[in-house]
């Protein structure tokens, strides 16, 4: 079971990405004090996130099965042409709202349009 999980391509990709982040973090130690703060901060968040994901991969397999099922559900509806056009309509509507009324009105319109794109109106404000 342990060997099967380690050979999973997603786990291998995230493990190699974690290794690259750790290498880049060590390379950032040679920067000047002011120049290394931001890269170390961003890489630290990436290292922490990947580490938590890899631990969760071994401890909570049911959670990851749920995430994979959700991804598969999204992939099934991704080829729907009406969803494509609705997405562009929502993006255009958000940009137009932002242009005409400003940022404070554009943000709620954008958030509400995401629910329209996903097709889950029950859990949104629409």
- What is Rg? 20 Å
- The quaternary state of the protein chains shown equals single chain
How many domains in all? 2
The parts where pLDDT drops under 50 for at least 5 residues are none
Backbone shape: flat
Q: What is the number of helices?
A: 6
Element-by-element helix/strand order = HHHHHH
Structural class: mainly alpha
The tally of strands reads 0
Taking the alpha carbons of the first and last residues, their distance comes to 45 Å
Helical residues, percent:
over 70%
* Main beta sheet: none
Summarize the entry for a quick read.
The protein has helices at 2-6, 9-27, 37-59, 61-77, 81-101, 103-118. The protein has 126 residues and is mainly α.
Word description of this protein:
Helix 2 packs antiparallel against helix 3 (37-59) and helix 5 (81-101) runs antiparallel to helix 6 (103-118). The longest helix is centred in the middle third of the chain and has 23 residues, at 37-59. The chain is mainly α. The chain has helices spanning 2-6, 9-27, 37-59, 61-77, 81-101, 103-118. The mean pLDDT is 80. It folds into two domains: 2-76; 81-118. The radius of gyration is 20 Å and the shape is flat.
Q: Could you list some keywords that capture this structure?
A:
single chain; 126 residues; 2 domains; mainly alpha; 6 helices
Helices and strands, with pairings:
Layout: H1 2-6, H2 9-27, H3 37-59, H4 61-77, H5 81-101, H6 103-118
Helix pairs in contact: 2-3, 5-6
């Amino acid at each position: 079971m342990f060997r099967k999980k380690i050979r999973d391509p997603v786990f291998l990709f995230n493990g190699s990405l974690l290794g690259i982040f750790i290498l880049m973090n060590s390379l950032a130690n040679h920067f000047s004090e002011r120049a290394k703060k931001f890269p170390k901060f961003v890489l630290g968040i990436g290292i922490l996130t990947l580490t938590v994901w890899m631990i969760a991969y071994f401890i909570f397999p049911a959670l990851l099965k749920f995430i994979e099922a959700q991804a598969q559900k999204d992939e099934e509806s991704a080829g729907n042409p009406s969803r494509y056009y609705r997405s562009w309509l929502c993006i255009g509507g958000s940009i137009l709202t932002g242009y005409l009324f400003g940022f404070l009105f554009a943000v709620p319109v954008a958030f509400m349009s995401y629910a329209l794109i996903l097709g889950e109106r029950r859990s949104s404000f629409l």
